[in-house]
Write the C-alpha cells for this entry.
Amino acid sequence: METILVTGGAGFIGSNFIRFVLSNFKEYQVINLDFLTYAGNLSNLKDVETDKKYKFIFGDISDKKIFERLPKNIDYIINFAAESHVDRSIQEAGIFLKTNVLGTLNLLEHARSISIKKFIQVSTDEVYGSLDETGKFSETTNLSPNNPYSASKASADLFVNSYHKTHEVPANITRCSNNYGPYQFPEKLIPLTIMRALNDQEIPVYGDGTNIRDWIHVEDHARGIMTVLQKGKIGEIYNIGGGNEIQNINLVKSILSQLNKPFDLISFVEDRKGHDKRYAIDFRKIHEKLSWSPKIDFKKGLENTVQWYKNNIDWIRNIQDGSYLKIREQFFKG
Ligand code: NAD
Ligand code: TDX
C-alpha cells in the first residue's frame, strides 16, 4: 500500500480527487492535510470519512511545525492547498503569498527531508496569462500572470522547478483549465450562478460577458493527476484541459435555461480588474505521452452539475449560513 499526502483535500478539487482515488484505486491510502479555511469543508468528504484508507490532519502548510506531526512514510505529495479565488487576491494579496508560495516552499522542504517518489504541484492555466482570439497555452508558453493569484501560483511553480533542479526533488507540475463539478465553493462562476438563480437573485456578469474560459469536469482533472502520478516523467510539466471554450455570458444563459429561469436575472457589472480575456489549453502532451484525454462531455457534465447543486441545497445552505465553519472551531479548540 502506498501513501499519498494530499494537501487542501477539503476543498473543491482536492475532495473530488480523494473520492476518485479511494473509489478507483485499491493500492493507495490518502492523508488529507487541510487548514479548513473558508474554502475547506469536511462535509465534502462525509462519505469517505470512515474509510480505513483515509485520514484527516488539520494543519497549515505555511506553518513549518505541522510537518513534525506527519508520518514519515509518505510516497507522494500532491499539493492542492491554495487560496484559489482571483477576486479575493485583488482585494488582499498577502495570504496568497503566504499560502501559495511559502506553503509550497515548506512542502518542498518537507519533501526533501523524507524520501518521496513524487511531488505534484497542482497549478493552473492562469500562470500563462491571457490569450486573444487565437492560439492556446502549451507547456512552453511563457509565464505571464496578470493577477495576484496567478502571480502566486506562477511563483510556486518556479520554486517547484528550482527544487527539482537544485535538490533533485522528483516533481511534476500540472496546469489545468477551469474546473466544474460538485462541491465547488459558491463564489466561483458556475456554483454562484446556480445558487443565485435558484434564489431568483441577480447573476453578476463581469464586463460584457465575452471573456472565455476552457472548462473541464473535476473528475477528468482528478484522472489527469493520477495519470501524471503513475506515468508522468519526473521534471515535466503537463497541461490538463477539457477543450470546452465558452463565453461567460453563454455559460450563464445555458445554466439559466436548464433551471427555467429568465435571462433578465443577468446583471452586467463592473469588470474584474486585469480580467484575463481568454484561456485555452493545448493538452496534446499529456494526451500523446501519457494517453490521457478528458472523457466527460461538457453539456452532459454541466447538466449533472446543475442537478447536483439542486439536489444538495443543504450543502449550499450550510455555507450560506456559515454553519460549515463550526467543524474548524472544534479543531482550534484542540
Ligand atoms: P479551493 O479554494 O476549493 O480549496 C482550497 C483548499 O485548500 C481548501 O480546502 C482550504 O481549506 C485549503 N487550504 C487553504 N490554505 C491552506 C493552508 N495554508 N494549509 C492547508 N490547507 C489550506 O480550491 P480548488 O478550486 O479546489 O483548487 C485546488 C487547487 O487547484 C489550487 O491549488 C488551485 O490553484 C488549483 N486549480 C484550481 C482550478 C479551478 O478551476 N478551481 C483550476 C486549475 C488549478
Ligand atoms: O460573479 C462572477 N461573475 C463573472 O462574470 C464571477 C465569480 C466570475 N465571473 C467571470 C470571471 C471569469 O472570466 O467568470 C469567469 C470565471 O470566474 P471564476 O469562477 O472566478 O474563475 P477564474 O477567475 O477563471 O479562475 C478559476 O480557474 C482557474 C479558478 O477560480 C482558479 O482557481 C483556477 O486557477
Observations:
- The first strand starts at residue 2 and ends at 7.
- Residues 7-8, 10-14, 34-37, 39-40, 60-62, 80-82, 84, 99, 103, 122, 124, 153, 176, 178-179, 185 surround nicotinamide-adenine-dinucleotide (ligand 1) (CB under 6 Å).
